[in-house]
Structure formats: structure tokens, C-alpha cells
């Protein structure tokens, strides 16, 4: 009976660049189906074409140069860049079958990123008052991963974004997550020659450890 109540989590990976509106529609439909009990949980790994997304806390002054399409979205957070070379993990879980605690869920997403980065040879850290995962560098700190979530009927959607080898110049069109005094980095920028397959393997391994 438990297997029927809690279907096995499905992993999905897209090799193509998935347009944001298409991904959003598919993600919302899956989340609704999970809430209705007609579909199982899913983690979807993908990349987007270059875009900026604005979360519910976005400040329009943080959009410096709208050189790419801008999408207003219902996730938490501020302005974020998505593009090729960045691994997106859209996480659709039923927290009613897990732990119905939003703060704990966000903490687990952060821990998932931290442990995945550790497997790839990078020390990612939380910072008080700043969303995302950060890397301490000489005389500065850079953000390597972002997260933004939405929860409806205790089903999660949206998720995380890990910079593997994106064009970091694309981030200059926004103030990422509203933080002006720090920069962004990536695995490639840190000298880590990881492929998307390497990143996916680390994410899958650490997800099971954190979320079961």
C-alpha cells in the first residue's frame, strides 16, 4: 500500500535547451497531478536558452539590461539568469508525504547543493541573509548556485540552478538575487572541468541522501 501512496520518484533529463514557458507549463501540470494523486514525484534536470526570471520579491531596478527575454514567475526570490551551461533542477515533491515544513525543505535544497558541490571538489556554503550557495575566494565571495521555490497544495515546484560552465557575462544584465556587493562563479570558472553528466550524477547521489 505504501508503494501506491508514495510512487517512486522519477528522474528526467532533457538534452535540448527547453524554452522557459514550455518548462513552466509542464512543471505546473506535473505539480497539479502530484497534488491530485495521479502522478508521482519528479526531479527534472535541464538547461534553458538565455533568459532572466523575476521572482515574487524582484525589484525592477535590478534589471539593468534586458538583453534576454524576461519572465515574471511565481517562485520566491528576485532576478535570476538561466542559460546554457547552467544545470536547472526542477523539484516536484509531495511534502504531505514527507515533511510539511517549508523552511526545512529550503534548507534541504541548500544541503543538496552543498553536498553535490563537495563531490565535485567545491566547498559551497550558506550565508546569513543571502539566498543561494556561495564560494569563498580570495578577497571576495561568489555565488555558484541559486534556488527559488513555490509550494502549492504542499507540492513543490521550481527548484535550483547550478552554474557549471555558463557565460558569466550574461549575469551582468541583472543584479543577481538583489546582491550588488558579490559576484557569480561557476565550476568552470573555479577550474573544475565537470561535464553535465558529472553534475547530474552528483545531484542524483546526494538527493537520495538528503531526501530519501
Unreliable parts: 1-5
Biggest beta sheet attributes: 8 strands, mixed
So how many helices? 4
Rg, nearest Å: 16 Å
Helix content: 25-40%
The structure class reads: alpha/beta
Spell out the helices and strands N to C. HEHEEEEEHEEEEEH
DSSP strand (E) fraction? 25-35%
The total strand number stands at 11
Q: Give the overall pLDDT as a whole number.
A: 92
Describe this structure in words.
By secondary structure, the protein is an alpha/beta fold. The chain is 26% helix and 32% strand. It is built from 4 helices and 11 strands; from the N terminus they run αβαβββββαβββββα. It has helices at 2-5, 20-36, 102-119, 196-211; strands spanning 10-17, 42-47, 51-54, 70-72, 79-82, 86-92, 125-127, 130-137, 140-152, 155-163, 183-184. Strands 1, 2, 6, 7, 8, 9, 10 and 11 form an 8-stranded mixed β-sheet that branches. Strands 4-3-5 form a 3-stranded mixed β-sheet, with no helix packed on it. Helix 3 crosses helix 4 (196-211).
Summary of the model, kept short:
By secondary structure, the protein is an alpha/beta fold. Helices cover 26% and strands 32% of the residues. The protein is globular, with a radius of gyration of 16 Å.
Topology:
Elements: H1 2-5, E1 10-17, H2 20-36, E2 42-47, E3 51-54, E4 70-72, E5 79-82, E6 86-92, H3 102-119, E7 125-127, E8 130-137, E9 140-152, E10 155-163, E11 183-184, H4 196-211
Parallel strand pairs: 1-2, 3-4, 9-11
Antiparallel strand pairs: 2-6, 3-5, 6-10, 7-8, 8-9, 9-10
Helix pairs in contact: 3-4
Amino acid at each position: 500500500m505504501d508503494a501506491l501512496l508514495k510512487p517512486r520518484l522519477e528522474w528526467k533529463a532533457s538534452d535540448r535547451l527547453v524554452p522557459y514557458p514550455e518548462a513552466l507549463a509542464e512543471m505546473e501540470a506535473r505539480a497539479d497531478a502530484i497534488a491530485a494523486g495521479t502522478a508521482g514525484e519528479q526531479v527534472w534536470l535541464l538547461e534553458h536558452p538565455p533568459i532572466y526570471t523575476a521572482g515574487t520579491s524582484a525589484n525592477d531596478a535590478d534589471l539593468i539590461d534586458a538583453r534576454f527575454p524576461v519572465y515574471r514567475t511565481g517562485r520566491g526570490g528576485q532576478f535570476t539568469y538561466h542559460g546554457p551551461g547552467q544545470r536547472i533542477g526542477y523539484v516536484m515533491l509531495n511534502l504531505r508525504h514527507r515533511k510539511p515544513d517549508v523552511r526545512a525543505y529550503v534548507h534541504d535544497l541548500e544541503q543538496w547543493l552543498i553536498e553535490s558541490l563537495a563531490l565535485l571538489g567545491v566547498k559551497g556554503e550558506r550565508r546569513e541573509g543571502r539566498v543561494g550557495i556561495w564560494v569563498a575566494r580570495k578577497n571576495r565571495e561568489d555565488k555558484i548556485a541559486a534556488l527559488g521555490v513555490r509550494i502549492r497544495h504542499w507540492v513543490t515546484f521550481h527548484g535550483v540552478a547550478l552554474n557549471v560552465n555558463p557565460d558569466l557575462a550574461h549575469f551582468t544584465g541583472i543584479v543577481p538575487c538583489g546582491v550588488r556587493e558579490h559576484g557569480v562563479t561557476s565550476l568552470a570558472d573555479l577550474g573544475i572541468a565537470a561535464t553535465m553528466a558529472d553534475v547530474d550524477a552528483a545531484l542524483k547521489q546526494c538527493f537520495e541522501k538528503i531526501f530519501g
